[in-house]
Write a structure and sequence with these properties.
Blueprint: H1 8-14, H2 18-34, E1 43-45, E2 52-58, E3 61-69, E4 75-83, H3 90-98
Antiparallel strand pairs: 1-2, 2-3, 3-4
Length: about 100
């Protein structure tokens, strides 16, 4: 949730096709089940930070949800996008760094 009470990651997810939402929820369930032990191909650590990239593929779309692990099996979702290029766009990285 941002400082205005908006939930941009939730809004992004709910704006996707039903089948994509189902796949995203499936990967969330895997994350909850395996916690930080969930590895590639579903999770990739972003550099030296504690931010991780949840990697979801549905049909021809590559979804990325950036998050960090909190106490217990809690995760803070920071940003979500559909990846269209090989490298994460600079604008999305800046969103992660500045909130």
């Amino acid at each position: 949730m941002d400082d205005k009470g908006n939930e941009p990651v939730k809004d992004f997810i709910l704006s996707q096709p039903k089948e994509a939402i189902a796949e995203i929820i499936h990967v969330f369930e895997l994350l909850y089940r395996f916690n930080i032990r969930l590895g590639l191909s579903y999770v990739r650590k972003m550099g030296k930070s504690n931010i991780r990239e949840l990697r979801i593929k549905h049909s021809n779309s590559l979804y990325r949800i950036f998050y960090f692990a909190y106490i217990g099996k809690k995760f803070v979702l920071l940003h979500a996008m559909i990846k269209k290029t090989e490298k994460t766009p600079e604008q999305d990285l800046q969103t992660l760094l500045t909130g």
